[in-house]
Specification:
alpha/beta, three-stranded antiparallel beta sheet, 8 strands, globular, binds BIS(adenosine)-5'-pentaphosphate
C-alpha cells in the first residue's frame, strides 16, 4: 500500500456493505472509520438531546437534519487522528452535506480523494438487512446466513447478546431504500463530475472478494 493520503467516502444503499468494508479499509490503510449512523446510534443509547431527537427519525427511515449531522462530522474531522486521512461511512447523504463537506475540507487545505460506490442489487440489499444482527456490546456485525456467529445469538468476539437494529424491519427498510434513491443517489453524479467516483461491484460476492476490488480502487489515482 502506498503512502498517499486517502480521504475516502464510502457510498452505497442501506445494506450495501459499507460498514463491512469500512472495517477492512480502516485496518488496511490506518485511517479512522467515521460512521454517522454509529455516532447517532451512540447518541441514542446515551440518551443525549441529539440522540432523543434523532431516534424517531432513524426509526422511520428518514434522514436526520443536515445541520445536526454536519456539526457532528465537522467536530470529528477536526480531531488529530483524521488529519492524515479518514474514511466516511454514511456521510454525505445529501447534496447539501456534500457541499458543506467540501467547504469544511477546503478550509484546512484538504479534499476528498476517493469516493467508492458499493453497488448491490435491491433484492440482495433487502435480504442482507433482514438477516443482519449486531452485538449489543462491541457492535460487531453478523448475518444469520452469510456471516453467522459460531454460537446462535452470541458475539464471537465478546460473548454478548446479538440484536436486530430497530430500523432493519421490513417497513423501515423500504423507506430507507426510497430515501436513498431520492436524496443520496444524486451524489453519484456529483462525485462523477469531479472525477473521484469509482464503483465496486458488491453483489453476489463475499466481503473479502469485494474488498479485493475496493483495494484496487483505493490504490488507483
Ligand atoms: P447508517 O447506519 O449509515 O445505515 P445505512 O446507510 O442504511 O447502512 P447500513 O448500516 O444499514 O448498511 P451497510 O451498507 O453499512 O451494510 P453492512 O456492512 O452493515 O444510518 C442509519 C440511519 O442514521 C439513517 O437511516 C439516518 O436516519 C441516520 N443517518 C446516518 N447518517 C446520516 C447522514 N449523513 N445524514 C442524515 N441522517 C443520517 O452489511 C449489511 C448486512 O449484509 C450485514 O449483515 C453484513 O454481514 C452483510 N454483508 C455485508 N457484505 C456482504 C457481502 N458481500 N455478502 C453477503 N453479506 C454481506
Amino acid at each position: 500500500m502506498t503512502e498517499t493520503q486517502r480521504n475516502v467516502i464510502l457510498l452505497g444503499a442501506p445494506g450495501a456493505g459499507k460498514g463491512t468494508q469500512a472495517v477492512r479499509i480502516a485496518a488496511g490503510y490506518a485511517v479512522p472509520h467515521i460512521s454517522t449512523g454509529e455516532m447517532l446510534r451512540a447518541a441514542v443509547a446515551a440518551g443525549t438531546e441529539m440522540g432523543k431527537a434523532a431516534q424517531k427519525i432513524m426509526e422511520s427511515g428518514a434522514l436526520v437534519p443536515d445541520e445536526v449531522v454536519i456539526g457532528v462530522v465537522r467536530d470529528r474531522l477536526a480531531q488529530a487522528d483524521a488529519q492524515k486521512g479518514f474514511l466516511l461511512d454514511g456521510f454525505p447523504r445529501t447534496i447539501e452535506q456534500a457541499e458543506r463537506l467540501d467547504a469544511m475540507l477546503a478550509d484546512g487545505g484538504r479534499l476528498v480523494t476517493h469516493v467508492i460506490l458499493i453497488d448491490v442489487p435491491e433484492d440482495e440489499l433487502v435480504e442482507r438487512l433482514a438477516g443482519r444482527r449486531m452485538c449489543t456490546s462491541c457492535g460487531k456485525g453478523y448475518h444469520v446466513v452469510f456471516d453467522p456467529p459460531q454460537s446462535d445469538g452470541v458475539c464471537d468476539v465478546c460473548g454478548a447478546e446479538l440484536h436486530q437494529r430497530s430500523d432493519d424491519n421490513e417497513a423501515t427498510v423500504r423507506s430507507r431504500l426510497e430515501v436513498y434513491r431520492a436524496q443520496t443517489e444524486p451524489l453519484v453524479g456529483y462525485y462523477e463530475h469531479r472525477g473521484v467516483l469509482k464503483t465496486a461491484d458488491g453483489g453476489g460476492r463475499t466481503p473479502d472478494e469485494v474488498f479485493v476490488c475496493v483495494e484496487q480502487l483505493l490504490e488507483g489515482d
